[in-house]
Specification:
Layout (H helix, E strand, L loop, with lengths): L2 E6 L16 H7 L6 E5 L6 H15 L4 E6 L36 H13 L4 E5 H14 L8 E6 L11 H12 L3 E6 L13 H4 L3 E4 L2 H6 L6 E9 L3 H4 L10 E4 L12 H12 L1 E5 L6 E4 L5 E6 L6 H9 L9 E4 L14 E5 L5 H8 L11 E9 L8 H22 L4 E4 L15 E4 L2 E6 L8 H9 L1 H10 L1 H8 L6 H16 L5 H18 L8 H8 L2 E4 L2 E4 L5 H5 L6 H9 L2 H12 L7 H18 L10 H31 L1
Parallel strand pairs: 2-6, 2-7, 3-4, 3-5, 5-6, 8-15, 9-13, 9-14, 12-13, 14-15, 16-18
Antiparallel strand pairs: 1-8, 10-11, 11-12, 17-18, 19-20
């Protein structure tokens, strides 16, 4: 199976190096913001968010007048990330200690955990770890009996913060909003994917503005690893039942997490126990079950004995969860089979392959699953994410929905290439009179944060709000754009939808929906940065011609399969390139021709209505076409772009006719 995306890392080891207080690069960056009352930390899996919280929490307890630290995680298995940790041996001033009675992520009834939470609030102890669910129920009871003031001078740290929602029905979101409104508690929000699978934002804009944001990119993290050097993202298509095809990609020699489909999912076979047993049968023959961990010892066809953890079967699951907490060595476990578990926050550093069955339309979930593989570990040089998907069948009534889901998953996952690429910094190209004659008109320099590029006509941030979005939210915003149906449709149909329409109509709409309080000028500033960043990130640097390589070294960049002299680079040029067409190009190289044909037929069967914005953007192209060909674009043309321009011209003329008729009618009425 060929990967859609394969990323290589430099393996500098920098992201794992510690300073004199025992902090890695990401943790030190967060600690610099330790005095923030509201802090949002966006960093990838394995970057050390949990320990960063420990440093922050202990400093607030010791030096900032905070009396309690409450850590909330989405599921109990993640609670182990906040277990007792010796920090003083590495140079910090205090260790992280959680008393057993205040670790509420252990097995037990929900009612008892809420009561334990209430007891903790009355005690003199300082640190508690619980689930989001326990926090919600305990919060409701405390508010009802003691009021919001009970949380004054407390730090609430919410892990996997994308579970919060600005929707009025979100209990966790309402909790956060009430605490912000009271303004007497401290909040630390941590997540590896600050966006949701739906259209609802995590925080309301007025609440989000109060947070100081710290971002640490996938590229910074993974490029600084010591061992892991490549990541592959691939899709495998099957016919029939997935359990009959899984043997092609499930290698018992690789440390693997298998996520079987939800019981109600299209790929599910209706019996999760049968599916689990079938996967184990593929791996080999069960010899025994460990009485302590609950792991199965399975003998493969090659005679090798591997250890398999079953997180699907309820009977014995608690034992397996506890067994997973004890894993310390590579040989302790080989395969995990899970359903709705072992995703976000799950830490098994040896995992090198995440095999997910069924469509994944949520970018958040895809990134979280990929994150299970991207831990650095000795002897682990390659990490792999594979999505096993049913091949679309043109005879099925649900083919359109299935294809759209697959395309969303593929396009969204291709975002990993965007996330993992170096961050470009852009600035306005100064006038020729301000440029030293010995330098090119467009400067390309490299700073500690990545390449810096000057572009003619580029709008630099005019407000702190825009600066914050560009510095901290660019990956999340690009994710939202990748998931937008209009943008995805344009990527699949580059001959029918002009790049200018994508860049100047579709993208601004996504920005406006995500940040509702921005001015038109601020939206344009962010739009230009998103487009420029996507163009440069998706530039193909594989150059075979030696002369071309030399030219590139002298100040050329490769855009849209041709070399562009930096002297000629401007925002208009960038706007004429569809950076998101990359999704279609990569798919064309990697997907079976018959499958791709059905995908394309399904998408192009949908008619696209003309909008005022698209017609206005196409008008300069129409004028250029007339000048070059001496005629107007033809509605009957076999060239899709010419036909679309003709449709736009007809729409413009009809709009003018309607406007003129309305003006005449108004004039007659006034007479």
């Amino acid at each position: 199976m060929q990967d859609f995306v394969r990323v290589n890392y430099a393996r500098s080891g920098e992201s794992q190096a510690s300073n004199k207080m025992g902090m890695r690069a990401m943790q030190a960056r967060v600690f610099q913001n330790r005095h923030s009352q509201y802090l949002l930390v966006k960093a990838p899996p394995a970057s050390g968010k949990s320990r960063a919280l420990m440093f922050i929490g202990l400093d607030k307890l010791e030096n900032q007048g905070i009396r309690k630290v409450i850590v909330a995680v989405p599921e109990r298995s993640i609670g182990s990330s906040f277990k007792n940790t010796n920090l003083t041996e590495h140079g910090f001033f205090r260790d992280w200690q959680v008393e057993d009675e205040w670790n509420l992520c252990k097995a037990g009834g929900a009612k008892g955990k809420v009561q334990s939470f209430l007891s903790f609030m009355e005690s003199d102890d300082e640190i508690l770890v619980c689930t989001h669910s326990t926090l919600r129920f305990a919060f409701e009871e405390i508010i009802a009996t003691k009021g919001i003031g009970a949380f004054d001078d407390c730090l609430l740290a919410i892990d996997e913060f994308h579970h919060v929602s600005a929707d009025a029905t979100s209990k966790l979101g309402e909790l956060v909003r009430l605490l912000i409104q009271a303004d007497n508690a401290h909040l630390v929000a941590m997540t590896g994917s600050y966006f949701r699978g739906d259209a609802t934002p995590v925080l309301r804009p007025e609440d989000e503005e109060k947070f100081n944001r710290v971002s640490y990119t996938y590229y910074e993290q993974l490029n600084g690893y010591k061992h892991l050097k490549t990541l592959g993202i691939g899709y495998h298509f099957y016919r029939g039942r997935y359990i009959d095809a899984i043997n092609e990609i499930l290698d018992p020699d690789k440390k693997t997490i298998v996520h079987i489909p939800h019981v109600g999912g299209a790929a599910a076979l209706g019996d999760k126990y049968f599916e689990t047993d079938s996967i184990i049968d593929h791996l080999g023959k069960i010899l025994s079950q460990d009485p302590l961990t609950g792991f199965y010892s399975v003998q493969t066809k090659d005679g090798v004995v591997i250890k398999v953890a079953d997180l699907v079967t309820e009977d014995g699951r608690e034992q397996v969860i506890e067994g997973l907490r004890t894993i310390e060595k590579r040989e302790d476990l080989d395969v995990i089979i899970a359903l709705g578990m072992a995703k976000e926050g799950f830490d098994w550093i040896w995992c090198e392959h995440a095999l997910t069955i069924g469509y994944k339309g949520s970018l958040t979930e895809v990134i979280q699953i990929i994150g299970r593989t991207t831990r650095d570990a000795p002897g682990k040089e390659h990490a792999q994410f594979t999505n096993l998907i049913a091949e679309p069948d043109a005879t099925q009534d649900r083919v359109t929905d299935a294809v759209n889901n697959m395309l969303k998953a593929i396009a969204a996952s291709l975002l990993m290439e965007q996330v993992l690429a170096p961050n470009f910094k852009f600035k306005t190209h100064k006038g020729d009179d301000e440029i030293d004659g010995s330098k090119p008109d467009v400067d390309v320099s490299t700073t500690g944060d990545g390449p810096e590029i000057a572009i003619k006509g580029f709008k630099e941030p005019s407000s702190d709000k825009v600066k914050q979005i560009i510095e901290s939210d660019i990956a999340d915003l690009t994710a939202a754009i990748f998931q937008n149906e209009d943008v995805l449709r344009a990527a699949m149909n580059p001959d029918e939808i002009a790049p200018e329409v994508v860049n100047q109509v579709f993208i601004p709409k996504v920005i406006e929906q995500k940040y509702k309080d921005l001015t038109e000028e601020e939206i344009e500033e962010i739009r230009q940065h998103v487009v420029a960043n996507a163009v440069f990130t998706n530039t193909n640097d594989e150059i075979d011609d030696e002369e071309a390589k030399a030219k590139k070294d002298l100040g050329f960049v490769r855009l849209a399969e041709k070399f562009i002299n930096l002297d000629d680079l401007d925002i208009d040029l960038i706007d004429s390139i569809n950076p998101f067409q990359l999704a279609y190009e990569v798919m064309s190289k990697s997907v079976d021709a018959a499958v791709l044909s059905r995908i394309h037929q399904t998408i192009t069967a949908k008619k696209i209505a003309m909008s005022k914005e698209e017609a206005e953007v196409l008008y300069p192209r129409i004028k250029k076409f007339h000048a070059e060909h001496g005629r107007e674009p033809d509605l009957a043309s076999q060239n899709p772009m010419e036909k679309r321009m003709a449709e736009a011209l007809a729409w413009i003329r009809e709009a003018k006719r309607k406007k003129k008729a309305a003006e005449m009618a108004a004039g007659l009425n006034n007479a």
